[in-house]
Design goal:
Blueprint: H1 3-16, H2 19-39, H3 46-62, H4 64-77, E1 81-85, H5 88-101, E2 106-109, H6 113-117, H7 120-126, E3 130-133, H8 136-144, H9 160-171, H10 179-196, E4 199-202, E5 206-208, E6 213-218, H11 222-228, E7 232-238, E8 242-243, H12 249-261, E9 268-272, E10 286-292, H13 296-301, H14 316-320, H15 322-327, H16 338-349, H17 351-354, H18 366-370, H19 377-390, H20 396-410, H21 412-417, H22 420-430, H23 432-435, H24 449-457
Parallel strand pairs: 1-10, 2-3, 2-4, 4-7, 5-8, 7-10
Antiparallel strand pairs: 5-6, 6-9
Helix pairs in contact: 2-12, 16-19
Length: about 450
C-alpha cells in the first residue's frame, strides 16, 4: 500500500472516532444547509440555471486555448502582465522573481486555493518574505500552523472556544473572547499589514476572456484591501477558471454565493482588469496574472474526467459527503478535499500516489445532486477506479481477489455451496481489519434466501 494511502486510512480512522469533531462539523454544516435552502429560493428555475452554467463551462473549456489568448490580449491592453506557468515550481519562481525585483519583504494574501496548491507561504518563508493570510478563516489556520480544512470555510472544524484559546496562546488575548471580539482582534492585527506590504496576492474565482478581467468574490473586504494598498498585485489562478464573457457572471456569481454559503450574492464582488489607470485614485501600479496549468491539461486530455474542471469551488459537495463529514478535510492530505478533490487530485498529483482517494466514497451520488454545475462526481470517481485498474496501479493479489469474488457472485450454485458459518469465518479472516474496529461485521444467515425459497417451494 502506498504511504499516502496508509496515512489517509490512519488519519481517517482516528478522526471518524472523534465525537467532538463530528459534533462541530455537523453543527456548522447544519447551519450551512439551512442557509442554502433559503438561498435557492432566488432562482425561478434552478435546474435550468445549473444546466446553463454547465453548458457555459463546457464551451469555455472546449475553446480554452482561444479564450486564454483573448484574456491575455485584453488584460495586456490595459497594462497588465500575463505569465504562463506550466507547473507549481514555475509559478513559485515567477512570484519570487517579482518579489526580488520589488525588494519585497512583506506580502498580504487573500484566500486562494491555488496558492495553497503550490504551498506559497512556506516557499516565501524560506526566502525571508512574510506572507500574511488576511481572510479570517485562513488567518486562524495560519496562526495554528494548519492548512485549510475546507475549500470555502478554512477553519470549519474549529469551535469559537477553539479559536479563543488559539488567540490567547498566539496573540496573548483573554481566553474567553466572543466571536465579535476575536474578529476585532484579527482586524487590528491585520490593518497595519496592508499598509506595510509591498505586494498583494489574490486568487481568482473566475477569469473573463472578453474583458481580460479577474473576478474575485469575498465576504470580508480583505481582498480589496490586499489589492488597493500594495503597489503590486499578483493573481495566481488555474487556467480552468475561464468564463467567455462578463455577462456570464450574472449567473455564476449567484450560483457560487448560494451553493458556497447560502447567500443571494456574496458581499464583495470585484473585477480587476489591469493596474491603476490614468486619472484613477487607487489600485496597484502593476498587476501580474499567473495562469497556472500544474496538471490541469492532464484532466483536459481525458474526455471523461474533463467535466471535473467545471468546478467553481463552492464546497457544496464536501458539505454533502458522508465520508467528508466523518473524516474531515485534513485526513485527505491534499489541497482539494472531499468528492471533487478525490476526483481531480489523482490527475493533478499522480494516479499512483492518490488513487486511494477515489475509493473514499460511498458512491451515494449526493455530491452530484448538490453540484451547482451538475458535475457527475460519483461517476468520475468510478472512472478513476477504472483508470487505475487499466493502468495497472492495483496489485495482482487485489485483481485475483476481485476476480474470485466476481465468479462466485455470478454463480448462485457457488454461493450456495458455502454455508453462512463459513462465510462469516471468511469475513473475519480477510475483512475484519478493513471493516474497522468501530463497526461490527455483517453476519450471514446459515441459509441464503435462495435456499430457503427452494425449500419452501420444494
Amino acid at each position: 500500500m502506498h504511504q499516502n494511502a496508509s496515512s489517509f486510512l490512519e488519519k481517517s480512522e482516528k478522526k471518524a472516532g472523534d465525537l467532538g469533531h463530528r459534533q462541530t462539523i455537523n453543527f456548522n454544516i447544519g447551519k450551512y444547509n439551512t442557509a442554502v435552502k433559503a438561498g435557492k429560493q432566488q432562482f425561478a428555475d434552478l435546474t435550468t440555471a445549473r444546466e446553463r452554467a454547465k453548458n457555459i463551462k463546457w464551451r469555455a473549456l472546449d475553446n480554452l486555448d482561444k479564450h486564454l489568448e483573448e484574456f491575455e490580449q485584453n488584460l495586456t491592453k490595459r497594462g497588465g502582465k500575463v505569465i504562463w506557468a506550466e507547473n507549481a515550481q514555475q509559478a513559485l519562481d515567477e512570484i519570487l522573481a517579482i518579489c526580488k525585483a520589488k525588494q519585497c519583504k512583506s506580502i498580504v494574501k487573500s484566500k486562494s486555493m491555488a496558492t495553497e496548491e503550490v504551498h506559497l507561504n512556506s516557499f516565501l518563508a524560506k526566502h525571508d518574505i512574510e506572507c500574511v493570510e488576511t481572510d479570517l478563516g485562513e488567518y486562524i489556520q495560519q496562526l495554528d500552523g494548519e492548512p485549510p480544512y475546507h475549500i470555502v470555510t478554512p477553519a470549519m472544524h474549529k469551535s469559537k472556544e477553539d479559536v479563543a484559546r488559539l488567540f490567547a496562546e498566539k496573540l496573548g488575548t483573554p481566553p474567553d473572547l466572543t466571536p465579535q471580539q476575536l474578529t476585532l482582534v484579527a482586524r487590528e492585527k491585520l490593518r497595519q499589514k496592508y499598509l506595510d506590504a509591498e505586494i498583494g496576492i489574490t486568487g481568482a474565482n473566475f477569469i473573463i476572456a472578453d474583458i481580460g478581467g479577474v473576478a474575485v468574490t469575498e465576504n470580508e473586504g480583505n481582498a480589496r484591501l490586499s489589492t488597493a494598498f500594495p503597489k503590486t498585485h499578483i493573481v495566481l489562478v488555474g487556467i480552468e477558471k475561464m468564463l467567455p464573457s462578463i455577462n456570464d457572471l450574472a449567473l455564476f456569481w449567484p450560483l457560487l454565493a448560494t451553493y458556497g454559503t447560502g447567500q443571494n450574492v456574496t458581499v464583495y464582488n470585484s473585477i480587476f482588469s489591469g493596474p491603476r489607470q490614468e486619472g484613477e485614485t487607487d489600485g496597484p501600479e502593476e498587476m501580474y496574472v499567473i495562469l497556472m496549468d500544474n496538471g490541469r491539461t492532464n484532466i483536459l486530455m481525458d474526455t471523461e474526467a474533463r467535466e471535473s474542471l467545471y468546478c467553481i469551488r463552492c464546497g457544496s459537495c464536501l458539505n454533502a459527503c458522508p465520508v467528508y463529514k466523518n473524516i474531515g478535510g485534513h485526513s485527505y492530505g491534499t489541497t482539494y478535499s472531499g468528492p471533487i478533490g478525490s476526483v481531480i487530485t489523482p490527475h493533478l498529483r499522480g494516479m499512483e500516489s492518490y488513487i486511494h482517494l477515489s475509493y473514499a466514497s460511498s458512491l451515494c451520488g449526493n455530491c452530484t445532486e448538490v453540484c451547482p454545475v451538475r458535475i457527475n462526481i460519483h461517476e468520475l470517481l468510478l472512472h478513476n477506479r477504472h483508470k487505475a485498474v487499466e493502468e495497472n496501479y492495483t496489485s495482482g493479489g487485489e485483481k485475483m481477489s476481485w476476480f474470485g469474488w466476481k465468479q462466485a457472485s455470478l454463480s448462485r450454485r457457488m454461493m450456495n455451496l458455502v454455508s453462512g458459518n463459513v462465510k462469516n469465518l471468511f469475513m473475519k479472516k480477510f475483512f475484519a481489519k478493513a471493516w474497522g474496529d468501530d463497526r461490527e461485521l455483517p453476519v450471514f444467515a446459515s441459509k441464503s434466501f435462495n435456499q430457503l425459497w427452494k425449500e419452501r417451494r420444494k
